Amino acid sequence: MSSDVKSIIERHDPARWKRTPSYRPKAELPYDPLRLPSDIPLLFDATVYIDQLKGDLPASIVTLVASRVILHGAPALAELLVTVGVLDPLDARTGATLKPIVETLERINPARIIVPNHDVWLEASLLAGILARTQGIPKTDRRKFLGDVLLFLMAAENGAILISRNSRDIDLLLQMKPSVMALLYEQA
Fold first, then answer.
1. Rounded to an integer, what distance in angstroms lies between the CA atom of residue 69 and that of residue 58?
2. Residue 118: exposure state from Cβ atoms within 10 A (0-12, 13-18, ≥19)
3. What is residue 165's three-state secondary structure?
4. CA distances from 1 to 7, 15, 128, 153 (A)
5. pTM for the whole thing?
6. 51-100 pLDDT, tens per residue?
7. How far apart (Å, rounded) are the C-alpha atoms in residues 161 and 23?
8. SS3 of 175, please?
9. Which residues contact residue 131 at a Cβ distance below 8 angstroms, ignoring those fewer than 6 apart?
10. If exposure means fewest CB atoms within 10 Å of the residue's CB, which of 3, 54, 79, 135 is most exposed?
């Protein structure tokens, strides 16, 4: 086993996580954009892109985004592009659904796209596995948390704040690694 793997396992000892962590009340979660440092870039979860496309992004998030440097995580962009591949090209509704997704992806400056490095992948894999086990996720779905964990750790790695509507998963991740900065929101 490489020293990277040993270090990650020691840092997040799977044996420490025997039970499902409890979800915390909303009041204990980071929902207030006014409490964020003003000079830190933002990293979007796929929920931000989806809600923006639907017109469901809250005004407070729209205002925040307008004043910040935005980073785009490859895992979130991949989630959007999976949709492009999944939709049936023979379905008459597909074109109207795909167009805004493709336009959004094409507008992103490639210089602002970040990818997970080796250590982030390893750490994310371990944390996703711990969450899958403690949340009772079936074997066939055990990678369920991987994209969210990758983005969460990429935010930390890049000194960014992760913006997400996915309060349940982010709550669990913040309990595992409370030093990561995140901002949660609810649909408008």
1. 18
2. exposed
3. coil
4. 10, 18, 19, 22
5. 0.90
6. 999 999 999 999 999 989 999 999 999 999 998 899 998 999 998 999 99
7. 21
8. helix
9. 137, 145, 149, 169, 172, 173, 176
10. 3
